[in-house]
Write a structure and sequence with these properties.
The chain is built from 5 helices and 19 strands. It is an alpha+beta fold. The strands form 4 sheets. It has a 6-stranded antiparallel β-barrel with strand order 2-11-14-13-12-15.
């Protein structure tokens, strides 16, 4: 084969090989599918979320000040009670016997007063007679002095006897009080939420008053004791509105209000939290002490403001997409401040430009726009997907 034809054949083969490689084996550019949402006017509510325990606002612990055996119990769990209602009885037998003994001691002490008074009267009569005899020189002065001393001693004995009476009277009063304490009565109107004793059980009040019952004063008013993280506590204040849910009624949202932000910290596993107390109306008595409440505290609200999707602020285009579309990147290149951010607009399925905005409050779904070259209806990129990649599901605000 002539040399020229050979070279021509080799050139044809090379071009064919390059065409096959170009058509089938070369690395194709990635085609991105832009996921977008529009900036829009609307409301934004910023919240702080936490969880807490449902409690009665006031729970009274009922105990006993005397030891003994529980003889009667007149109430049980969930029993409504009124103030001064008898709810239990401690066996009074031993205390009755003790009171009888104290009353007998009082009688003895009173008899002692009568005896000491009679002795004093007798001594005073003798002293009077001895003074007359001494004036007539019929007795010695020492005998007169002995009579005077005897009267003084009898007066002291009378005072001592009267003190014994006072002491015995106090003991009797204490005995009567202890006997009255065998009647356990409710000090308030409310509902029994806990009963910690049974009939026949012995209770000892020697060192610490044992608790027999817990009574919630008013279950139509409840409170949630919740712990808020130190990073969020600065946004929480008294008077803020609260919405919450409980597992018992997962489809129902309840309302409340912050009444107290306690300054004492709680530290668990190096995590610092602060107790926030929330008052709740419970007129239907659906909520019960001990329920776990998932709380959302409304810290601020904006009505009819320009807002952008929070995902748009998190979006950063991949380098291949920037190379393919060559959007306008004339926006600021410095790192944004905490209340600033960047979003990317799109047109005809392509990146258009980078926009700097100043942000306000957020509900984690939307972010308020305070300023920036952006308007309602502008299309913003929230993600760039390769075809076949599952699209990010939308998020619903709480």
């Amino acid at each position: 084969m002539p040399q020229g034809k050979r070279i021509l054949a080799l050139a044809v083969l090379s071009l064919s090989a390059w065409g096959v490689w170009y058509a089938f084996f070369r690395e194709k550019p990635v085609v991105y599918d832009l996921q977008t949402e529009q900036a829009a006017m609307g409301d934004i509510t910023a919240t702080v979320t936490a969880s807490g325990r449902m409690n009665a606002i006031s729970v009274v612990e009922i105990g006993t000040q005397v030891s003994g055996t529980v003889r009667e119990i007149y109430v049980d769990y969930n029993s409504p009670v009124s103030a001064d209602q008898l709810i239990a009885m401690i066996d009074p037998t031993i205390l009755k016997l003790q009171l009888s003994e104290l009353q007998a001691n009082l009688a003895v002490a009173r008899a002692g007063v009568e005896s000491a008074g009679a002795a004093l009267s007798d001594g005073e009569r003798k002293l009077k007679r001895n003074r007359e005899l001494y004036a007539r020189k019929l007795i010695a002065k020492s005998e007169l002095e002995e009579s005077e001393t005897g009267v003084q001693m009898k007066r002291a004995l009378l005072r001592e006897a009267r003190s014994r009476v006072s002491q015995a009277e106090a003991a009797v009063a204490r005995g009567r009080t202890n006997l009255n304490h065998t009647r356990i009565v409710s000090p308030v109107n409310g509902v029994v939420v806990s009963r910690k004793v049974d009939v026949g059980q012995t209770v000892a009040a020697s060192f610490q008053t044992p608790t027999l019952f817990s009574i919630a004063q008013d279950l139509t008013k409840m409170q949630i004791d919740t712990n808020v993280d130190e990073a969020d506590i600065g946004r929480v204040a008294e008077g803020q509105s609260v919405s919450f849910r409980v597992d018992a009624f997962p489809e129902e949202t309840f309302e409340g209000r912050v009444v107290q932000v306690r300054i004492a910290p709680q530290t668990v596993d190096n995590v610092v939290t602060y107790t926030v107390v929330i008052h709740v109306d419970n007129g239907e008595l659906k909520l019960k002490p001990g329920m776990t409440a998932n709380v959302s505290i409304e810290t601020s609200r904006r009505k009819n403001v320009l807002r952008v999707p929070a995902a748009a602020l998190r979006f950063s285009p991949p380098q291949p997409l920037l190379e393919q579309t060559s959007p306008d990147r004339s926006g600021p290149r410095s790192r944004p401040a905490p209340n600033e951010g960047f979003v990317w607009s799109a047109r005809d399925g392509k990146l258009e430009r980078k926009i700097a905005i100043v942000t306000g409050i957020t509900d984690n779904r939307w972010v308020e726009v305070l300023s920036g070259d952006i308007g309602s209806g502008d299309t913003l990129v929230i993600n760039a997907l390769v075809p076949g990649t599952p699209r990010s599901p939308g998020r619903r605000p709480f």
